[in-house]
Amino acid sequence: MKGLITTVLALGTALAFPAPRGTSSLSSLALQKVLSDASPILGAYAKSSLSTASWMHHYPDSTKLVHMNLPGVHDAQTWNYSQATQDALKHVTDLDGNTVYPPEIYRCQEKSIIDMLNAGIRVFDVRYAYDPTNSTLVFWHSEALMSETATVEDVLFGFYRWLDEQPSETLMLSFQYEGGTTINAKNDAATQMELFRTLTTPAAKKYFLQTKDQFGTLGEARGKITLLKRFDLDQLPASYGDALPGIHFSPALWTDDGVDIALTYNSAKNLTAYIEDYYQPNSPIGMGAAYNIELKLNATTQHLVKASGMYPDSLFWSFASSNYDVDSPPETPRIMALGNGTQLTPKGGVNQQLVPFLKGMKGKRVGIVMFDFFDTPGDLVQALLDL
Ligand SMILES: *[C@@H]1O[C@H](CO)[C@@H](O)[C@H](O)[C@H]1NC(C)=O
Ligand SMILES: *[C@@H]1O[C@H](CO)[C@@H](O)[C@H](O)[C@H]1NC(C)=O
Ligand SMILES: *[C@@H]1O[C@H](CO)[C@@H](O)[C@H](O)[C@H]1NC(C)=O
Ligand SMILES: *[C@@H]1O[C@H](CO)[C@@H](O)[C@H](O)[C@H]1NC(C)=O
Ligand SMILES: *[C@@H]1O[C@H](CO)[C@@H](O)[C@H](O)[C@H]1NC(C)=O
């Protein structure tokens, strides 16, 4: 009898709020709105049937994340930062009086985040801060505001939605508060509190792995996000840091411009990550693009060789991205990654030269490799996935 009553009640509930035929439910309309708000950073949401959108289904659940070769993108949020975008945001940027340099200084990608996901990218580096009115956390690259309307929280919903559609995959999201961001915004208690809130909403608790300071297996991580914390919550009581899951890559331990950083993220278990983040070659001014590209390529390939031969159970995280903006003309992220298209850089940039290198690493673990302009040349990401 009780069962019957429950059934009748359930039926009553279902009948009381029928989804109108031919229209969407309010929850799906709400999701559409959030994804639309996110689109200046996320791009237009699209489900993909590309094989790269679900490449992880080929790997067994028992695969350790630190054993995988994971393509990543540096400064993912910059993909649409053209002159038109900079001009369109000028009235907001002007609010805090920042000097903003030409867009090519900041731009590191040109395909949307949704395109990146569908192309197989699984590790995302993003930079956040308060918007110039201190109202919401949005995306920046140094002084350059990427969008005033797409909040960090909106964009996270895009990742959540994508994971629902690609449950075989796992993602890592690296959040960094960058010094040199907007003049007024500070990495203060209010900012840290808002970041903490954003990363502990009910949705975040569902999609971010709730483990701390260790990497597990692919099986545990499918459909979920590992948070890579390139920030401290040092302006808040210690309980906040304790309550936030993810892996803590404290900026205090991350050597600036380091070619070979050993960062212990879990001292109790002696877990160390090996990182190459040589983003600005330390060459004298005026050596030119080809030289700086070679210097950067050397740092990256040396680190990938180390990844293939040492500490097999530790995380290796290498950045193939760089710039040398102090040169005149500057070597922008694009020129470092792709060359400048002239005889000045006959071998191209870091990306073109990495393809034959990666093809020579068959069967090896190289770890996470972060690219600028990841989609050029077209076989770069595939070369990593094919190892
Ligand atoms: C990319 O930027 C252009 C110029 O600002 C803008 O018109 C376009 O809507 C942006 N794309 C997205 C997906 O927001
Ligand atoms: C935003 O917060 C910063 C740091 O507290 C402060 O310096 C700045 O004046 C604030 N900006 C606005 C528009 O309130
Ligand atoms: C910690 O791990 C490193 C290798 O990553 C090893 O060289 C070192 O001896 C270990 N230290 C302790 C105290 O176990
Ligand atoms: C890069 O490495 C190669 C091979 O070790 C070396 O010959 C070359 O001088 C290095 N280039 C730079 C710019 O340091
Ligand atoms: C390439 O570099 C040369 C020498 O600095 C410069 O004259 C040329 O404008 C650059 N071309 C591009 C497309 O950046």
UniProtKB/TrEMBL annotation:
Entry-linked PROSITE patterns: PIPLC_X_DOMAIN
Domain annotation Phosphatidylinositol-specific phospholipase C X: ranges: 107-229
Domain of life: Eukaryota
Protein keywords: Signal
GO-annotated biological processes: lipid metabolic process
Presence of the UniProt keyword RNA-binding in the record: no
InterPro entries on file: PI-PLC_domain, PLC-like_Pdiesterase_TIM-brl, PLipase_C_PInositol-sp_X_dom
GO molecular function terms listed in the Swiss-Prot or TrEMBL record: phosphoric diester hydrolase activity
Gene3D superfamilies attached to this UniProt entry: Phosphatidylinositol (PI) phosphodiesterase (3.20.20.190)
Signal peptide: 1-16
Entry-linked PANTHER family: PLC-LIKE PHOSPHODIESTERASE, PTHR13593
Protein name: PLC-like phosphodiesterase
Taxonomic lineage from the root: Eukaryota, Fungi, Dikarya, Ascomycota, Pezizomycotina
